[in-house]
Amino acid sequence: MNRIYLDHAATSPMHPDVFESMKPYYESVFGNPSSIHHFGREARRALDEAREYIAKSIGASFEEVVFTSGGTEADNMAIIGYALANENKGKHMITTKVEHHGVLHTFEFLEKQGFEVTYVDPDESGRVSADAIKECLTEDTILVSCMYGNNEVGTVQPIKEIGAILTDHQAAFHTDAVQAFGLETIDVKELKVDFLAVSAHKINGPKGIGFLYVKKGKNLTPLLHGGEQERKRRAGTENVAAAVGFRKAVEIATMEQEKRKNTYDAYRKRILEIFHEEDIQYTYNGSSSYYLPHILNVSFPGLNVESILTNLDLDGVAVSSGSACTAGSIDPSHVLTAMFDDISRSHSAIRYSFGYGLTMDQVEEGARRTANVIKRLIK
């Protein structure tokens, strides 16, 4: 059986050029970048070049990029770090109900520390209103967090509009751009964001590395304590090989951005065409106007997501519910629950996501296998 991977939003395969770029930094350029000798200086040069390239890709400066272990740490660093460093200015923060758990659970932690958090509702497309954010602002609001593009339904948020609203307010602005980076053109100055989180393994880079953009002048309380790495913002010996691989992944993603967007749009369209051809009933979840092209979320009325996922896996198709799996049971998606009053939409929702190495033939075969599974389960 030819297995088909349609879960690139969960993680993506490493690009072979990324792997090749990293190998020397495991084999010969292995020095600690904090060491002053030749071996350390070689590693430091590679780390600095990676940081400089990645910073330029989002319109930032060299010192504004902090390497982390991934998107979750970057989100935690921004949200907890800024809250603790600025609680003297206020203890109110704003986020949305459709954020990744790396953000939502971080705010829940801060609520237990005495902070107040307002959670903004989305509309049925999964999009929040910039005006709704504005209405929630108070004199004590110190941070607003809104993701760039949703990891479950792909809806893109009005980040630029929110940034403009916050220009004359004390609140800092954080966005989780993990799913959007590499597909959307991002300029942190234009967006007026203060913090932006990214992870390498979503764009065919290595797992275990990400970065946080920290606007110059924004102070954070460090979460890790030890050495003076990352300008005293994150202690610990830097992962030079991963940083080099991250840089290469960004280079490839930037070069292929428009091609990938067009390809993924074609995949989305073809899957839905096949569902129509096979007379499969489904409902589309997300925005038809503001969306990330590599994510497609649909519900199959009357069916159970666990049965769909299990049968698709048996038929060699890897997809996701986008929901949390705990102790063998799949909880209703918090994203779809926030979007719809009808909870059944969440209980039957499947996320298809596309990326490097996928072909139209595989996408079509995955859609047809899905149709066969749906027909079998309906009987």
From TrEMBL:
PROSITE patterns: AA_TRANSFER_CLASS_5 (PS00595). The keyword Transferase applies. It catalyses: (sulfur carrier)-H + L-cysteine = (sulfur carrier)-SH + L-alanine. Its EC number is 2.8.1.7. It holds the Pfam family Aminotran_5. It is an enzyme of class 2 (transferase). Its cofactor is pyridoxal 5'-phosphate. Keywords: Iron, Iron-sulfur, Metal-binding, Pyridoxal phosphate, Transferase. InterPro entries: Aminotrans_V_dom, Aminotrans_V_PyrdxlP_BS, Cysteine_dSase, PyrdxlP-dep_Trfase, PyrdxlP-dep_Trfase_major, PyrdxlP-dep_Trfase_small. This is cysteine desulfurase. It comes from Evansella alkalicola.
